[in-house]
Design brief:
- The complex is a heterodimer.
- Helices cover about 25% and strands about 25% of the residues of chain A.
- Chain A is built from two helices and five strands; from the N terminus they run E-E-H-H-E-E-E.
- The radius of gyration of chain A is 11 Å and the shape is globular.
- In chain A, about 50% of the residues are buried.
- Chain B folds into three domains: about 160 residues, Aldehyde oxidase/xanthine dehydrogenase, molybdopterin binding domain (Aldehyde Oxidoreductase, domain 4); about 180 residues, Aldehyde oxidase/xanthine dehydrogenase, a/b hammerhead (Aldehyde Oxidoreductase, domain 3, Alpha-Beta Complex), CATH 3.90.1170.50; about 300 residues, Aldehyde Oxidoreductase, domain 4, CATH 3.30.365.10.
- The two termini of chain B are about 45 Å apart.
- The relative contact order of chain B is 0.13.
- Chain B is α+β, with helices and mostly antiparallel strands.
- In chain B, the strands form six sheets. Chain B has a seven-stranded mixed β-sheet, with helices on both faces.
- Chain B is built from 21 helices and 27 strands.
- The chains are: A alpha+beta, B alpha+beta.
- Chains A and B meet through strand 4 and strand 5 of A and strand 8 and helix 10 of B.
Chain lengths: ~80, ~750
């Protein structure tokens, strides 16, 4: 299981918590598991998110592997100028 | 002036990277040979013009194009009916490029004409009759959030709340970031200051207006010539909007006269393509300056509340901010990035930032250099400055005391990797600027800023030519010197002179997909891809050398531009240069090329500290910038002149944002200043030379340590200048721009 933390306004989508544990070996696994378990997360994932693993930001490289002790954050999809 | 912190100095000695090599586009640009968006013409080409709404908010009851269609010389007219079904992700873009049921802002496109000349097209626009039902409008962010505000989109229900509201409103979404307990933190503080700030919408101010030529053939295949930050984006978006196979649309990026984020989306491009599709002729469209200001993508205006607590020793105990950004008539303002970035320079135990994304009857905002971050930084850095003054603390010492460092938990969640904020602050403290004397009515301000940076999808091809020169094809338009920077990196890796490498921007049919030139990503990502493509080519060059020598490929190494035997056991062979091997390419197996297709990750965040001196004229309210110094971490400055240029450009755009630039809407919801006479960007006579200090804290995510530098430089200026003006004027400034009338109001003179 990997503990995934979400940004503040996504807390209601996962039952009011800061984080939730989900099964997965890649970012893709985690996003799919979250979307399947929580309807609010499904919408967020479909609209696009960025994910950080141990501080490293991934915009759409969802096949990046994750381990149980990794720090994983889900954040709004970044844009730049 | 370059500063390399002792504990993190670069370990690699570079031959070419870090040199100020000649810019490959320099002569073309100063002689006028460079071809920009409006410089392309095609046989049989028509001119396209757009009819725009004069109303801020109106129902479109009917559009009658019959008289215009009959005008001699008119070949095609398009309206929203010519843009059919598309993917959900493109719906807002489709409505923004051509209004459907409603015109949502002054300048919103409602129809377009293609005719044999601009003059005929102009006449035709006058013959199009649009029956509008004018609706109540709202252009101010705080007004738009009120319960009784005119509702712009009755299908918009606020997201991000515990419960989705049952009534529509102009509030698109709420975002929240942070950790700890801010109320507990405020109780621990010796002083808490709470302020509200407002910033005006500004435009990127690129000198070259949007321009394109679109040509769809009778065979269903088309091509486009476009001034853009991302021609692959233009291809995919236009193809998606008009139901064209991506492979049937080839897009070439012209030279670009500035973008700064404003050319990361489409406006007239799909319209030109739709007109060409209908007319079966090439169609050229060039926006006027008025159109650019009324109907492209400015940044958000904002309204921000900030509360920060500090102990007498300068420790920040808590920070709380609420940011409200209007993003024009569609959801998607940059408020989440403002909320994520605003406290990022500080390692705080208790922090919260709430962002509200709000729609108004203004043009759909587009990215502008570190989208959303400058406004948030302005508010937070202003309150920190005020706390320092009240507690009689040195503002650089306080920032150093609280600065985020390697491993700090960012205010938006994750822990930082290797970062250079403290190095920028230390460089600022040690700079002569910090100790220079100030005169009457003069003040000094400092501020820090942060931006995320990112990498993204990137393709590069590197072709070794028969004469030993190298052709490098990248797919990211060069908006800030990337051809020289990427050329430096390829030459470095290959071990050949820089002038043997020619870097071009390839069209969409000649290279794999590339994300837009944005996010300060190109020198990082295209540079990384160029390095890997060079390594791919080196592998092949070594194989050819092995073949020539009759030894195994793994017995050959590449050093300083030559293939050499890896050890004495490999035999005695004279080293072969890249040119020697290239000359025999045909005989040894054919052309030699290297490729790289990656989704570049590991961009590494970036921080800057700015220091500025100003003088305020108490009689007129005019603010003069006396001295300005930028301290920013570049990771590794691949081409220092361009890095300095990015630092200076960000500072100058920030000066304009802080002092003069402002979208002014009348009570009728129409833009009052759609021209550079009334929308005042800084010119050379307004500016001192912007001094720069490049800090190099290598980014471990890049082979040469590169971090993006293009965006962070616009984050601190609003706050640094406001802090300086507040110091000079003796009154806290809380509203941008600090134009003469606003300064006089703050001084109580009017």
């Amino acid at each position: 299981m990997v503990r995934v933390q979400v940004w503040g306004s996504l807390k209601p989508a996962i039952g009011g918590e800061d984080s939730v544990e989900v099964e997965g070996e890649t970012i893709n696994d985690l996003l799919k598991a979250l979307a399947a378990a929580y309807p609010g997360m499904d919408e967020a994932v479909r609209r696009g998110v960025s994910v950080t693993v141990n501080g490293e930001m991934y915009a759409n490289a969802v096949m990046v592997p994750v381990k149980p002790d990794d720090e994983v954050f889900i954040l709004p999809k970044l844009v730049g100028g | 002036m370059n500063v390399q912190p002792d504990n993190k100095s670069m370990k690699r000695d570079f031959d070419i990277v870090g040199k100020r090599t000649a810019r490959p586009d320099g002569i073309d640009k100063v002689t006028g040979r460079a071809r920009f968006g409006a410089d392309m013409s095609m046989p049989g080409m028509l001119w396209g013009l757009v009819l725009r709404s004069p109303h801020a908010h109106a129902k479109i009851r009917r559009i009658d194009t019959s008289a215009a269609e009959k005008l001699n010389g008119v070949h095609a007219i398009v309206t929203s009916k010519d843009f059919g079904p598309c993917d959900d992700s493109l719906l807002d873009i489709r409505e923004n490029v051509m209004a459907r049921e409603k015109a949502l802002y002054d300048g919103h496109a409602v129809a377009a004409v293609a005719a044999v000349s601009k003059s005929v097209a102009r006449q035709a626009l006058k013959l199009i009759k649009v029956d509008y039902q004018v609706l109540p409008h709202v252009t101010d962010v705080d007004e738009a959030m009120k319960p009784d505000a005119p509702v712009i989109n009755d299908k918009l229900f606020t997201k991000g709340l515990d419960k989705t509201p049952k009534k529509p409103s102009n509030i698109a979404e709420r975002f929240e970031f942070g950790h700890g307990d801010v109320e507990k933190g405020f109780k621990e503080a010796d002083l808490v200051i709470e302020r509200t700030f407002r910033t005006a919408a500004t435009h990127q101010g690129y000198i070259e207006p949007h321009a394109c030529v679109a040509s769809m053939g009778a065979d269903g295949r088309g091509e486009m010539w476009v001034c853009t930050q991302g021609h692959f984006m233009v291809r995919n978006t236009c193809a998606g909007l008009l139901g064209i196979d991506v492979s049937n649309l080839r897009v070439t990026a012209s030279e670009i006269g500035g973008g700064f984020g404003g050319k990361t989306t489409v406006f007239i491009e799909p319209v030109a393509l739709a007109l060409s599709l209908k007319a079966n002729r090439p169609v050229k469209m060039v926006m006027s300056r008025e159109e650019v200001l009324r109907a492209s993508g400015p940044t958000s205006s904002s309204s921000i509340d900030v509360k920060i607590g500090m102990k007498k020793d300068g420790t920040i105990t808590a920070g709380d901010a609420t940011l409200r950004y209007q993003g024009g008539a569609f959801p998607g303002s940059a408020v989440p990035y403002g909320a994520m970035a605003c406290f990022a320079p500080y390692d705080l135990k208790n922090v919260r930032a709430i962002g509200w994304d709000v729609i108004t009857n203004r043009p759909k905002q587009a990215a502008y250099r570190a989208p959303g971050a400058p406004m948030g930084a302005y508010a937070i850095e202003s309150v920190i400055d005020e706390l320092c003054r009240e507690l009689k603390l040195d503002p650089l010492d306080v920032r150093l005391k609280n600065a985020s460092t390697d491993g700090s938990k960012a205010s938006y969640g994750p822990n930082f990797g290797v970062i250079g904020l403290k190095a920028t602050l230390e460089a600022a403290r040690n700079h002569p600027h910090w100790k220079a004397k100030l005169g009457k009515n003069q003040g000094r301000g400092v501020a820090c800023g942060f931006w995320f940076n990112f990498g993204g999808e990137t393709s590069v091809s590197l072709n070794v030519n028969v004469d030993g020169t190298v052709g490098l094809s990248v797919g990211t338009p060069d908006i800030g010197g990337s051809r020289a920077s990427i050329g430096n990196m390829a030459a470095e890796e290959l071990g050949i002179p820089y002038d043997k490498v020619r870097c071009i921007i390839a069209d969409t049919a000649s290279l794999g997909y590339n994300d837009v030139t944005d996010g300060s990503r190109v020198t990082f990502a295209s540079g990384m891809a160029a390095i890997q493509a060079a390594r791919d080519a080196i592998g092949k060059l070594c194989e050819r050398a092995a073949k020539i020598w009759g030894i195994p490929a793994d017995a050959v190494v590449w050093e300083k531009g030559h293939a050499r035997p890896a050890s004495p056991n490999a035999g005695k062979h004279e080293p072969l240069s890249l040119a020697d091997i290239a000359a025999q390419a045909g005989a040894t197996g054919g052309p030699i090329a290297g490729h790289c297709e990656i989704n570049a990750e590991g961009a590494g965040v970036s921080f800057a500290t700015h220091m500025v001196d100003t003088e305020v004229d108490p009689e007129t309210g005019h603010v003069k910038i006396l001295r300005y110094t930028v301290f920013q971490d570049a990771g590794k400055a691949v081409h220092p002149s361009y890095v300095e240029g990015q630092f200076q450009g960000g500072a100058v755009q920030g000066i304009g944002w802080a002092l003069n630039e402002e979208y002014i809407y009348g009570k009728d919801g129409r833009l009052q200043n759609p021209g550079f006479l009334d929308y005042r960007i800084p010119v050379c006579s307004d500016l001192p030379m912007i001094d720069t200090v490049i800090i190099e804290v290598p980014n471990p995510g890049h082979p040469y340590g590169v971090r993006g530098v293009g965006e962070t430089s616009i984050v601190p200026p609003l706050a640094a200048i406001s802090n300086s003006v507040s110091d000079a004027a003796g009154v806290r400034m809380t509203r941008l721009p600090m134009s003469p009338p606003n300064v006089l109001k703050a001084l109580g003179r009017i």
